[in-house]
Amino acid sequence: LGNVLWSVAPKLVRYTSSTRDAGSFTRKVAVLGASGGIGQPLSLLLKLSPLISDLSLYDIQHTKGVGADLSHIETRAKVKAYVGQEQLADALKGMELVLIPAGVPRKPGMTRDDLFNTNATIVADLVSSCAKNCPRALIAIIANPVNSTVPIAAEIMKHHGVYDEKKVIGVTTLDVVRAATFVAEAKGLDPTRVFVPVIGGHSGNTIIPLLSQLSPPVSFSKQELDSLTKRIQNAGTEVVEAKAGTGSATLSMAHAAARFTFSVLEALGGKEGVVECGYILSKETEFKYFATPLSFTRNGVERSHGIGKLSEYETKLMEEAKSELNSNIKKGEEFAKAYL
Ligand code: NAD
Ligand code: LMR
User: Fold this and answer.
1) What terms describe the molecular function in GO for this protein (predicted)?
2) What is the mean pLDDT of residues 27-36?
């Protein structure tokens, strides 16, 4: 699996218009939660891209300032800022891709699931509006706990009769970005040329890096496997602790979301061979929602590349992920039932 993906996986995010032809496939993208720790740098990276014609910034606060600031940058994307619930519908009309980093982040000592009570409602409200105002858009969910917010979004789209399982995706790109960085560091490789498929969910031991399917192929001792796996699974917490109460990963997440966005937009524009990992309704394993490498086309996700052949070590990681992932999924679905 790794070797197949290696030839097609995007390695670097492309920002400047000088390196790309804007062409005829520029797109309309919305960021919901655009004034936040992720929202602001993500919006900046998107504003720099020639792939975007219209950038719609929505938040419950501060978007007017963020929008005015970004709108002075000499790139093609037209920036519009919307603030407050009553402007949400206008922020979403005509959008083809909606990114959702709205929601509270962790503080030290919290799990992602501890964010559920606040973020489940935020995501449910925002996705309900997507269902009404841009039902065909691809919805990329960043807000935690991703393991639960994606099932919530799916149930809400279903309720409105507009669910397209190829278009509701949890963004797990940061796990892939971190895995490549940590492996490259440990093995003295160029991080831009390393691809590690990361499958499963996006929390603790539900994050399953497939180090046996690395591109380029590299072998690891048991000790290396243990320490790299643990670091990749714990990387979010590493940042939460370093930020000491002021938030979680924002800059690396903005990069990861921009990488995901540009891949999706290139695929929507007709580029072939676009692969990114993502958490989505899945038939690959016993889990109803599961992240795998996905091929994207003009219609969103074309197919999953599956999980490949797992090592014994990785089969054990799958076992360890079971109870948390299943209970996160169930919790999201139950919340949606009560919400609707
Ligand atoms: P933040 O608090 O800095 O920003 C969140 C923003 O959301 C704020 O500007 C806030 O006003 C806005 N917001 C709150 N309710 C809203 C609503 N109903 N509609 C629109 N906007 C609303 O937080 P952050 O650091 O940007 O993190 C945002 C979320 O992303 C958190 O849940 C965090 O756990 C998650 N996250 C996910 C990943 C991932 O890999 N998927 C990585 C990092 C962070
Ligand atoms: C991350 O992986 O950095 C995010 O999910 C934020 C967090 O709470 O760790």
Assistant:
1) L-malate dehydrogenase (NAD+) activity
2) 98
3-class DSSP assignment, residue 98: strand
Structure-token pair, residue 88: 């949400």
Q: Write the DSSP symbol of residue 79.
A: E
Distances (CA, A) of 202 to 69, 130, 278: 33, 23, 10
Do residues 47 and 57 make contact, with C-beta atoms less than 8 angstroms apart?
A: no
The token duo for 229 is: 């796996």
Count the alpha carbons within 13 Å of 19 in the hemisphere toward its beta carbon.
7
Both tokens of 77, joined, read: 């994307």
305 catalytic residue (yes or no): no
pLDDT digits (tens, 9 = 90+) for 239-263: 999 999 999 999 999 999 999 999 9
| CB-facing half-sphere around the CA of 212: CA atoms within 13 A | 13
Residue 143 among known ligand-binding residues: yes
Please state the ipTM of this predicted complex.
0.99
Asked if pLDDT for residue 86 goes beyond 70, the answer is yes
Alpha-carbon gap, residue 86 to 240, rounded angstroms: 33
Tell me, in angstroms, the distance from the centre of ligand 1 to residue 247's CA.
10
Q: How many residues does the chain have?
A: 340
Query: In terms of C-beta density within 10 A (0-12 exposed, 13-18 middle, 19 or more buried), how is residue 243 classed?
Result: middle
List all residues whose CB is within 6 A of at least one atom of ligand 2. Answer: 105-106, 112, 144, 174, 202, 236, 239-240, 248-249
Q: How far apart, in whole angstroms, are the C-alpha atoms of residue 333 and residue 152?
A: 6
CA distance 198 to 211: 9
Task: For ligand 2, atom 2, name the residue with the nearest CA.
Answer: 236
Percent of the chain whose predicted confidence (pLDDT) is above 70: 92
Which protein residue's CA is at the shortest distance from atom 9 of ligand 2? Answer: 236
pLDDT exceeds cutoff 90 at 16: no
d(CA 164, CA 180): 31
Nearest-angstrom CA–CA distance, 102 and 145: 12
SS3 78: strand
The first and second tokens of residue 235, run together, are 């990387």
